[in-house]
Specification:
The structure holds two protein chains of two kinds. By secondary structure, chain A is mostly helical. Chain A folds into two domains: 77 residues, Four Helix Bundle (Hemerythrin (Met), subunit A) (Up-down Bundle); 45 residues. Chain A is built from seven helices and no strands. The longest helix of chain A has 26 residues. The termini of chain A are far apart. The model of chain A has no long low-confidence stretch (mean pLDDT 83). By secondary structure, chain B is mainly α. Chain B has one domain: Helix Hairpins (Orthogonal Bundle), CATH 1.10.287. The chains are: A mainly alpha, B mainly alpha. Chains A and B meet through helix 1, helix 2, helix 3, helix 5 and helix 6 of A and helix 1, helix 2 and helix 3 of B.
Chain lengths: 162, 100
Amino acid sequence: METLLFWIFALVGVGCAGLVVLHRNPMSSAIYLVATMLCLAGLYALLAGPFVAVIQVLVYAGAVMVLMLFVIMMLNLREETLQREGSLMAWLIAGLVGLVLVVAVIPPFPQTPVGTPPSTFGTIEEVGRKLFTVYMLPFELTSVLLLVAIIGAVILAKRRTF
Amino acid sequence: MIPIPYYLTVSALLFVIGAIGVLMRRNALIMLMSLELMLNAVNLSFVAYARLHNDIGGHVFVFLSITVAAAEAAVGLAILLTIYRARETVDVDNLHLLQR
């Protein structure tokens, strides 16, 4: 069962990721990106991370993608602006470089046997305890970052001209 | 139990697809989406290694990186909107103000 789920999530996720890059219409790309995010959330759940999986669905597949879709609709891109993309030769070279990159990125496989994690592994309680003790400073800094992002986004989007 | 290297391979594939998207596409919106793809690929590595070492720290980092990605998306899209208002295009080949 777990194996089947892994292969479904992995294949659908990578396939949709490819379509995000290849599709001409930005709207379709965004929908495929949502599918990839959901598949990744499934993979997180398989890796015993229920909290991260939920956050992935809420923040990525929810908030960030809604933002993207809104911007796509506001931009209202015409068809002719979507036509010209890289030539076949360029895509071929990109694929080749990508292949080399995959081989380079895939790490030397760790052979450590993986035991079953403790039953509390990856729950919100466990993550929260670590977040508010060891990683207190990064957590607080994140709030400052979010404040800066809010103010920056509002000011940038509000202004009419340069 | 699926071996961890399988997850790492999926992560590497997603990262490379995102990198190709950033390098090949000329639509700034698609480039932003590819960027998100790359961030997600790294997150998958974090969670996989957290499982391998039974260390919850990886999950904390994914949490923080998702926050940063959300902030990045908000600011990036706002910049994109401003550029579109000024230049009526999101094609990065047409955005060559600094070349002149």
